[in-house]
Specification:
This protein is mostly helical and about 475 residues long. About 85% of the residues lie in helices and about 0% in strands. The chain has helices spanning about 1-10, 20-55, 55-65, 65-95, 100-135, 140-150, 155-170, 175-200, 200-225, 245-275, 280-290, 295-315, 320-355, 360-370, 380-390, 395-415, 425-430, 430-450, 450-460. The model is unreliable at about 1-15 (pLDDT under 50).
């Protein structure tokens, strides 16, 4: 019987991430994540399109401008924390440690429930104060408060989906999270049209559509996790916090969570500067954020792919595949970045027209797009190197590099430069400036001082 269990555990862990042609395995993992991220982004994008076309530019500015920044601040912190669970599970999964995988899964789900309650309360109660402190214009403040409060009612399903999808991806399954997101996105589109266009519920209808569709995605994830016979099976009776496992998850995930917070806080300051430039600029910035999300979907998908790839191969002790995988993933990401920058630069105007027909908003949006799109490539190295280092459990130094190179420098630029020249281009220049500086810091650390660099030096010494 014991031998059968061991054989079952080994068969459960069979996946091709630790075998086969590296670039093919990266792409096979990348595309489901990309499409999954695409459909996840569609949640808020559809909200923005529907309210922009059928309610007005004030509603468009409220749904995607200051509210989106604050939502990313709170939810992004948890998503960063949950990456620690993904890394831990992928390493145990690659090492065939079924008992540790199960413990990590149940601790992660319990952690999601607790965080969901806390974030929901904070978002609902703190929305008016936070939006006022950001200088949100009065003509959109009421819309923004209503949207945020309703959105945060759905925090728990949102976090359960994100954690559950992370668990499946850690085990090499990126297809089913995609299917669940597609289902949720289709639900969101149908409900957006029903609530906003036909029932005239405005931003409240858009928020409710998002909540219900995210709940559907979360239910599908839970059904799969409870119905599987693999080592990551979820049993409700075992959901509890294990102190030691939670400590390991937080130790790896906290830097990513703090990094997300620092990004979001710097973006809150940027959004405050944008808010001071008027509703047209806020609406343009909101629409631009939906357009350039296409680029970020690609970059983030490669980042998640390299984290899981590195995590499983590192857990299996296959360091040669780890290093080759990082190089090949970086090359593919650079090529994708150049291609997407060209497409958005050439055809961005037509995408803007999906969101609004307002001439002033369109003109301001194209000014932002043509300034920022050519600089996207300066961020690529940060995403791939930080994702790879997170896969081996090295996340504190990358967090510090990001905090200094991106967040602190970005805030310094906004505080010192924007008052001297209060224009949107001055505000958005903070992005390529900080990406370039942080890229240099990452290259130096990754190739000279990181654990991967030290292992490479040690292996050369043995030869």
């Amino acid at each position: 019987m014991e031998q059968k269990i061991k054989k079952q555990e080994l068969s459960d862990t069979q996946n091709q991430i630790t075998e086969g042609v590296i670039w093919k395995q990266l792409l096979l993992f990348f595309f489901p994540i990309l499409f999954g991220t695409f459909f996840q982004q569609l949640y808020n994008t559809v909200d923005a399109i529907v309210v922009g076309q059928f309610v007005g530019k004030e509603a468009l500015a409220a749904v995607g401008g200051p509210t989106g920044t604050l939502i990313n601040l709170l939810v992004g912190f948890f998503v960063g924390l949950s990456s620690g669970a993904t890394v831990i599970i992928s390493q145990f999964y690659g090492a065939h440690r079924a008992d540790k995988v199960s413990l990590a899964v149940h601790t992660s789900v319990a952690f999601s429930l607790l965080c969901g309650l806390g974030i929901m309360a904070l978002g609902i109660l703190g929305a008016p104060l936070a939006l006022s402190l950001m200088g949100t214009p009065k003509d959109i403040l009421e819309y923004a408060i209503l949207y945020m409060r309703l959105y945060f009612l759905g925090t728990i399903p949102n976090l359960i989906y994100n954690m559950g999808a992370g668990i499946l991806r850690a085990a090499g399954d990126s297809k089913r999270p995609l299917l669940f997101l597609i289902t949720g996105c289709v639900t969101n589109i149908v409900l957006d049209v029903a609530f906003v266009v036909f029932l005239h519920m405005g931003v409240a209808g858009a928020a409710l559509a998002t909540i219900l569709s995210q709940t559907a995605s979360a239910l599908f994830v839970v059904i799969v996790l409870t119905g599987t016979d693999q080592m990551y099976r979820l049993r409700f009776s075992l959901i509890r916090l294990d102190r030691r496992m939670l400590g390991r998850i937080i130790r790896i995930g906290l830097p990513a969570g703090l990094q997300s917070v620092m990004y979001s806080l710097s973006n809150v300051i940027i959004q405050s500067s944008v808010n001071s430039l008027g509703t047209d600029t806020i609406a343009a910035w909101t629409a631009y954020g939906k357009i350039d999300s296409v680029f970020w979907m690609i970059i983030n998908a490669f980042g998640i792919s390299v984290t899981t790839f590195v995590g499983q191969n590192y857990g299996a002790g296959k360091m040669d595949r780890v290093k080759k995988g990082i190089r090949q993933c970086l090359a593919m990401t650079i090529a994708s970045s150049v291609f997407m920058s060209f497409i958005l630069y050439q055809f961005g105007f037509y995408i803007f027209e999906i969101f609004t027909a307002d001439a002033a908003v369109l003109a301001k949006g194209m000014e932002i797009l043509r300034f920022l799109v050519p600089t996207f490539i300066t961020y690529v190295t940060i995403e791939i190197y930080s994702g790879a280092l997170r896969g081996i459990g090295d996340s504190w130094i990358p967090m510090i590099l990001t905090m200094v190179g991106v967040c602190a420098l970005r805030v310094l630029w906004i505080i010192t430069a924007v008052p001297l020249r209060r224009e949107i281009t001055t505000v958005v220049f903070s992005y390529p400036l900080t990406w370039s500086v942080t890229t240099v810091l990452f290259i130096i650390y990754f190739h000279r001082f990181s654990p991967l660099a030290k292992r490479k030096e040690a292996s050369h010494g043995k030869k």
